[in-house]
Specification:
The protein is of the alpha+beta class. It has 4 helices and 11 strands; from the N terminus they run αββαβββββββαββα.
Length: 200
């Protein structure tokens, strides 16, 4: 177990060093002591045709490895597994609202899990070669995690929330099938606790 952890740590360190030495990857540089201006990026046409721009919200190397390169954080390492406070879960890269606390549940998978998104088209999806369905931020296309159709039973969630869940969320075609389980890397999320208090 310890050898596996060492290998993953060395691998992550090598990735960070490689990315820092690569030309044109300014987002991976560690910030200096002087105040740096926020990076402004324009969404590409592939991001569901939006023209909105956004500020990059993080320069954290672990977050960037997950969000921009698609790495997966180790299971049971995210403090968001144990998050109980009310609020929304936003993309750590661009700030797009993705989930809220009403859809969070303990899937015992080792990663923060949700059974529905916060609104239509908050996420986009891409089928991977191994058959898994990758979920990405609907605004900046950052890697968030994967979606599996083994979430909670429909009878285990509040019916008013189930009826209001977005039609863009993946669903099984079988009747009385389980809801989706959005298995999300904690490093790809930021919690906005102000969001719920401002809506109440």
């Amino acid at each position: 177990m310890l050898g596996c952890f060492r290998f993953q740590s060395i691998f992550l360190l090598c990735c960070i060093l490689l990315l820092q030495s690569s030309a044109g990857v300014a987002a991976f540089q560690f910030p200096s002591s002087e105040k740096m201006p926020r990076t402004r990026m324009k969404s590409s046409p592939s991001n569901q045709g939006t023209n909105e721009s956004y500020s990059v919200q993080t320069r954290n190397p672990l977050r960037l490895l997950v969000l921009r390169l698609g790495l997966t954080e180790l299971a049971w390492t995210s403090p968001l597994n144990y998050q109980k406070k009310e609020g929304t879960y936003d993309c750590a890269y661009c700030g797009q609202k993705l989930f809220d606390t009403t859809s969070k549940y303990d899937s015992r998978s080792g990663w923060p899990s949700f059974w529905r998104t916060i609104e239509e088209e908050a996420l986009s999806y891409k089928m991977e070669m191994d058959g898994r369905l990758e979920c990405q931020c609907g605004r900046c296309s950052s890697h968030l995690g994967h979606v599996f159709l083994d979430g909670p039973r429909q009878t285990d969630v509040p019916q008013e929330l189930l009826e209001a869940s977005p039609a863009s969320d993946p669903r099984s075609k079988r009747e009385n099938a389980r809801l989706p389980r959005f298995c999300i890397n904690g490093a790809s999320l930021k919690v906005d606790e102000k969001a719920s208090s401002s809506t109440n």
